[in-house]
Amino acid sequence: MAGDNLLYNLYERRLAAQVKPDRVPQHVGVILDGNRRWARAMGIGTAQGHKRGADKIEEFLGWAEDAGVAVVTLWLLSTDNLSRDPAELSPLLDIIAHAVDELAATGRWRLRLVGAVDLLPVPVAGRLRTAVASTVVAAPDDGAPGDGAPGAAGEVPLKPDTRMQVNVAVGYGGRQEIADAVRSLLCERAAAGATLEEVAGSLSEEDITAHLYTKGQPDPELVIRTSGEQRLSGFLLWQSVHSEYYFCEVYWPAFRRIDFLRALRDYGQRERRLGR
User: Fold this and answer.
1) Apex CA 115: angle with CA 39 and CA 48, to 5°?
2) pLDDT of 35-80, one tens digit each?
3) Residues acting as catalytic residues
4) Which domains does the chain have, with CATH numbers?
């Protein structure tokens, strides 16, 4: 066993050395797939599989942070998943809410909810919103020149929040996101007095991008899906138009740092054309 650990550690260090810091993606999207199949393979209950998958999240975020990733989007629950048997869905929602509570409690990352949260049960939605809101806090400036923008008289300037941003995608669907973005845009323009004809005449891709759940963030350069499935299933449909995809055979609860490093190495070796 000790020999196996030594070989694993040596291989992990070798992989890490092959990941070039200047080729690490700014934004990584992850489809956390395979909890149920992992549980079946292990001969345990589905809820235990979901729990093991949730336990993996904080460990993964530490790997991403160490690699220099700035934004991670984790797809924890789709809009389609909301139609699952309540006997599975109810404990799954509780596991997700508990996982988000724990991520928020660390204070290491700034969290953002990504999805149609209003479709979730009210207690779960409220719990998620509370946890995420607790991470949107910047530390007071230490007085060093150039840190933060000057505020009004008597206000304490705040340092920029340089923590890694983590998007928690719960009740998320790519089509739902685009529909919500267009709806938000139309309501905003209508409130400003614009007619439907005026909106239609000036509508641009940038307008829709500015109303997505991920507004203000870079698009994902790399999307990882575990469990061997090779499809996006509607994940970040708008944002992933130029993303690189990496499909990993490992079920999410068994995902290791070497699997992540392989994905980063593979990404760094690709020639990105960005549609050109």
Assistant:
1) 15
2) 999 999 999 999 999 999 999 999 999 999 999 999 999 999 999 9
3) 33, 81
4) 31-137+161-269 (3.40.1180.10)
